[in-house]
Structures are given as C-alpha cells and as structure tokens.
Amino acid sequence: MAPSAAEVVASASSLFSKVTPNPTSDPAIYDTHHQKFTNDGLPTTTEAWLERARRVSEILAVDAAARDIENKSPRAEVALLKSSGLLKVLGPKAYGGGGQGWDVGYKAIREVAKGDGSIGMLLGYHLLWSTTANVVGTNEQKDRFQRTIMENNYFIGALTWSSGAVNPRDNDLKITDHGDHLIFDGQKHFNTGGVVSDLTVLEGVLEGTEDHIFAFVTTQQEGITFAHNWNNVGLRLTESGSVKISQVKVPWVNALGWDIVSRTPNPATLDIPFATLLLPTIQLVFSNFYLGIALGSLQFATKYTATSTRAWPFGGDNKTSATEEFYVLERYGNFFAHLRAAEVLADRAGEEVAGIYARYGESREISERERGEVAEWVASAKVVTTDESLRVTAGVFEVTWK
After folding, report:
1. How many CB atoms lie within 10 A of CB 344?
2. C-alpha distances in angstroms, 160 versus 170, 363, 398?
3. Distance (Å, whole) CA 394 – CA 277
4. Which of 241, 326, 377, 391 is disulfide-compatible with 349, CB 3.0–4.6 A?
5. How far is CA 98 from the centre of its chain?
C-alpha cells in the first residue's frame, strides 16, 4: 500500500531531526596560500585571473581524492576561493570586483574543476547566483546586491533550479504576502553550496498566482535547516543535500524585479527574454566543470601511465614501456583531440554568453531570436562536453592498468 500524504510529510520531517552535520574542513590548512593571495591582491588582467584559477586548481589537486573520501563540509575550500579572489571575478570593479566577462568566468570554473570537480562546481554556482539581480532585479537591486556581495566577499548558495527550488522532484517553495514582507516555506531535496554559504537565493511561487519570486536571504538563520545528507558518488564536496525552509521572512524590497507598490512582476525586468538568461548561463556552467573534470582526469591518467602502467607483455611486438604501445598512444591522442575540440566549442559558447551580457546588460533589450541563438550555442556545448567528459573519464581506465 502506498504511503499517505501525512506519512510522506512525517518521513520528510524526520529526515531533518535525525541528521548531524559533517565535520568541516579547517580554513587554516590554506593559511600560507591565503596570505600570499592577500599580499598579491586581485588580478588585473584576463590572463592573470586565469593564472589565479590555475594556481587554486593546483593547490586543490594535491589531495583532492583524500578530501573527497573524507567528505568534510568544504569550508576550507570555500575560504580558498574567497582569499584567491575568484568569487569576485565577474563583479564590477567599482565595488572591488574583477570586471571580467562570463567568457573568463567559465574558463576559471574549468580550471578549478581540473583540480577538484566539486569546488569547480561550487565556484560556478556562486558566479551564477551572485549575479541573479543583474538578470532579474531592478537597477537599484542590481547595484545594491553587487555592492553587498563584493564588499563582503560573500559566497552564494541557492535553493533554485538544479540546486533545489525548481527541481522536478519537488514542488516550488510557497510564498505568502504579509504586507511589507514575504514568507517562504517548503522543502527541497537538493541545494548546492548552501551549508557553507553566506547568502542563499530562494525562489518560489507567490500564493494565489503563478508568479515566481527570487530573493537573497542570510543563510545562517533559524528558518533554514539543512539535512546534511549529501553522500553522493562524485562531487561529494558540493554540499548538495536536502534543506527545509520554514517561515523565512523576506522584505518586499528584496523581491528581485518586482514592483513593490503594485505587488506585480515589473515588466521592465521580468517579462522579457533577458530575464530567462539564467537558464542557458548555468547550463554552460555545467559544461565547463564537466570539461574541467575530464581534462583533470586526462592529466592525472597521463602521469600515471608514464610512471606506473606496464607495457603489455602478450602482444608479440612487446614494448619496453606503456608509452610506446600503439593502443595507448591512440587512446590518449583520441581523448586529447576530442577534448580540445570540446574546449573550443565551450569557449565559443562562452563568448556568445559574455557578448549578450555586455551588449544588453544595461538595456535588457535582447530579442527573442538573439536569446534563442545563444541558447543554441550553449545547448551544443552541453551535448558535446557531456558526451566527451563521460567518454574520457571512463576511458582513462583502459590505459591505466598496473
């Protein structure tokens, strides 16, 4: 017999009452790096930003496998992203940000993911959700939240889309109007980075309507309860477990893109193609950390093959080392060529996304056709990077025997 609705609710509630938080990693383990990044200051050129991302990737790669096994809540890793300045790469220079475009942001995500896929994913989610007000907020909200995030070096988590609020496993959060403020209630199976975030993006549907509302809230508050139940195979340090939202209060002035007098979506910010750019933007985030994971896997496998893989002893044309084996050379060459092509496609898609924001970030007057065309570039990149990343991360085991 199927469980009743009351039994389902009771079971979900018990999920949050029985868990204990994971141990957290200690930010002090990166003190030497924090100090160096602080002394060096923020990068000032595109290449310097990418070099900073490569440096963070190298730091993380040293013990990525061990940290994944330990599965500690990644406070140290987020602290490293903060001190490196990478959380600010897209932010306006006026408020202490890097002033770079999404094309650079995507490459930074990819670089970090080469060393640690989980932290590359966290960086990608932060960059997307930290710019939410730029896409769906009013000009005043865009300015206010960018200033707040940059000046405080905040890390942003989210209970939205694939990280929660519009995930198909869940209903939307319920939003009720209480005069000068809103109340968010509900539960999500997934959130990404929320446990270690400073601010969280909530999203839900206003009661009695079909209208969605995005809002930033402080993460550490009584109404946000994390289940600490993320124990996935892969990407374990993304802290993507369940979360309960109970009576979380949001002032109407923080309802992104809404007219607080009429209590209606502002057509100048929400009823236009520009407001839908969050979706293709985050899809390309996925493409780039997938690609970074594959590139990192190939780099690791190459070193392993050169130092540990034995030449095949039963071929009749025996080689002295695995790096002389025709099959091994063919596999690596094939993986390298396909990943290089995937990188070029991802970079082109990133340039398209960056160009859209550069041209229409102020006016928001992008046409439906232009929005559709950039989505096509993103979708193409997503298909290719997904296929190739899966092929390479599985295929390297064919050339890394003992």
Report:
1. 12
2. 11, 26, 38
3. 32
4. 377
5. 18
C-beta separation of 158 from 177 below 8 A: no
- The residues, ordered by sequence, that sit 6+ positions from 148 with a Cβ below 8 Å of its Cβ are 154
Query: pTM (2 decimals)?
Result: 0.93
Measured CA to CA, the distance from residue 5 to residue 145 in angstroms comes to 39
26/133 same-domain check? yes
Provide the angle, in degrees to the nearest 10, between the axes of the packed helices 326-360 and 102-115.
150
Q: What CA–CA distance (Å, rounded) separates 241 from 246? A: 17
The pLDDT tens digits of the residues spanning 317-343 come to: 889 899 999 999 999 999 999 999 999
Tokens matching residue 112: 């970090």
Let me know whether 248 and 378 are in one domain.
Answer: no
CATH number of the domain bearing residue 129 = 1.10.540.10
3-state secondary structure of 185: strand
**Per-residue pLDDT reduced to its tens digit, 152-184:** 999 999 875 444 334 556 678 999 999 999 999
Domain final residue pick, 124, 154, 184: 154
Tokens 């809540």, residue? 73
How many separate domains does the chain show?
3
pLDDT cut 70: percent of the chain above it: 93
- The domain in which residue 89 lies consists of 5-154
Tell me the CB-side half-sphere exposure of residue 274, using CA atoms within 13 A.
Answer: 25
150 and 125 co-located in one domain: yes
Q: Which residues contact 200 (CB under 8 A, 6 or more apart)?
A: 156, 157, 158, 159, 191, 194, 216, 217, 218, 219, 224
Whether residues 380 and 342 fall in one domain: yes
What lies within 8 Å, CB to CB, of 298 at 6+ separation is: 332, 335, 336, 339, 392, 396
Domain co-membership, 202 together with 120: no
Query: Is the domain of 253 the same as that of 362?
Result: no
Based on the fold, state whether residues 167 and 69 are members of the same structural domain.
no
With bands split at pLDDT 50, 70 and 90, how would you rate the model's confidence at 9? very low
CATH code for the domain of 296: 1.20.140.10
- Here the tokens at position 375 are 């989505």
